[in-house]
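Fold this sequence, please.
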Amino acid sequence: MTLTLRDAFLDQAARTPDAHALVHGDTVWTYRELELRAGRMARTLAARGAGPGTLVAVRLPRGPEPVAALLAVVLTGAGYVPLADDDPPDRCRHILDDCAAALLLAEHPSRDGRTLTPDEALAPARPFDAAPVRAGDPAYVIYTSGSSGRPKGVLVEQGALGAYLAQARARYDGLSGRTVLHSSLSFDMAVTSLWGPLVSGGAIHVLDLKAIASGTQPPPAASARPSFLKVTPSHLPLLGLLPDSCLPTGQLVIGGEALTGSALGPWRAAHPDVTVVNEYGPTEATVGCCAYTVRPGDAVDPGAVPIGRPFAGTRLYVLDADGEPVAVGGVGELHIAGDQLARGYLGRPRLTEERFVPDPFAADGSRMYRTGDLVRERPDGDLEYLGRADGQVKVSGYRIEPGEIEAVLRGHAGVRDCAVVAVGEADARRLVAYVVPDPDSPPGTAAPARHAAEALPPYMVPATFVTVPELPLTPNGKLDRDALPGPPAGDAGPGDRTPAETLLCELLARALGIPEIDADADFLTSGGTSITALKLVAGARRVGIRLELTTVLRERTVRRILAAQPDAASPLVEGVPE
C-alpha cells in the first residue's frame, strides 16, 4: 500500500529522529526539529480550518522556513499551493482568488484575515489530532501557463503524489543522502528534491546555485557534497560554473525539457562516475512518470536522449489523430494513464474534460491524459520525445503558453497586436515578442516590456521585443511564424568606451562566444541567457569588478550595468584572464 506524504514523512521521522533533515547555511534541523516546528504551525493552521479537502497557499523566500511551512500544511492533511516569491502581485492575487485558499503563509503580516507569518503560526508544542487523509484528497496545486491569459491550476491528489514518491524512492537512491533544493517551489520539479529526501531518510540542502556560480555566495564545504541533484537541461551550463561541492556524486536527474547527448556530453566527460536520468512527465502526471537511465560507461548519441519507459503503475500510449496506436517507429501523441494522473484543472471542468479523456484501452473506466507531446517508440522499446503538437513551448524547463504572454501584452494601450515565439535551442532558448504598436501611442517597446515585467513571472517575460508594422499571415489567415523577422543581434563594435566598459565587453563577448560586442548592445538580444549573465559576473569578479547578478539581468548592456553600479569597477585589475 502506498503511503500518503504525511504518513511517509512521519514514519521516516520516527525511524531517524536525530538525522539531519534540512540544512541552509548555518541552520541545521534534524527530523525531530523539523517535525516539531512544522507541527507547531500545523496546530494553528488546523485551528483556522486547514485540513483534508482544503487548500493553503505558501509564499516565502528561499530558506528553511518554506520547507517547514509546506510540511505544516501537509501535516494538517490540506493541500498546498506554492507561490513564487518573485511573482508579480497581480499574478499572486489571481492564484489566491482562483484556488480559494483558506489561508496564506507569507513573510509579511497582513490584516486580510487569511495571512499568517510563520512566527504568527507557531503554536505551543503540543500534539493535535489530525484528520485522516484519503488518496483522493488534494496534495497540492501547481499553476502552469494558460493560453487564456491566466495561469491554470493543476490539482494533484494525495494518492498520485504518494505513487510518484514511492517510485522516486525506489529509483533514486541518492535521495537517502544529501539532495540540493535550488529551484522555485512553485515549479513541480522541486517536488522530487523537497519531499524525496524527507521520505527516504535524506537531508535537504537549500542552495542558491546561481549566487554560488556568480561568486555572490560562498559554496558549501567539500564534506557537504550532495548525492542527488535534479535540474533542467538549461541548467547544464550553470553546473559547469559550480564547484564540486555543489555537484552530485550519485545521480543527476534531468527533466522539464528535451535533452540531447551533445548538451549532456561535457557533464559526463567531467563526471564519468555519476548516473544520469532523463525523467519525463508533465505536471498533470505528477512530476515524472517515465525515465531513461544513462549509467557510467554507457554510450550516448549526440541527438535526442530517449525518455525511456513508464514507471510502475503508469501506462503510456502513442496514438494517432484517430486515437489508434501507432506502430513502432511512427510518430504519435503521447497519452498517459495510471496511478499518477492529476485530478484535473482546478475550477475548469471543460478544460479538464478536453485533456483528461476516457481510456479506451482500460476496462475499469479510468482516464488518460492527452499530453500534446509528440513521441515515437524506438525498436528497443524506449520512447523518444520529438516536440509539441500544439503551441506550447519550453524555456528553461518551464512549460509556457505564448498565448498567456500575448494576452498580457494586448492589455497594454500601446499594443495593437503581438505574437510571442521561442527562438534558439537548449540553454540559448529565449522568448521574443513581436509587437504591432498602436499608432496613437508613443513609439518604442519600453512600455510594453515594463508592462510584461509587472504582470508576468520572470521566466515568462520576453528577452527581446521587436516592433513590426503588422504580423505576417498565411493565406488562411494564421500567423506565419516563418515570415517573422529575426530578432536583432545587437551592434558589435568598440564604440566609445571607458577602460572598465572595454574590459566588460571583452568578458561578455567571451561568454557569448562572439568576437566582440558593443557597450550599448543588449546581451539577451545578442543570444545571451541567464547563464551568460552568470559567466559575466563570475569573470568580472576574477578581474576585480564586483557586479550583482540582478543588476546584469535588469540592465542588460555593459554601459547601463556599470552606470547602475558605478563603484563596481574600483579598484580594477588590469587585463582579461585566459
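Residues 573-578 have pLDDT under 50 and may be disordered. Residues 499-564 form a domain with the Non-ribosomal Peptide Synthetase Peptidyl Carrier Protein; Chain A fold (CATH 1.10.1200.10).
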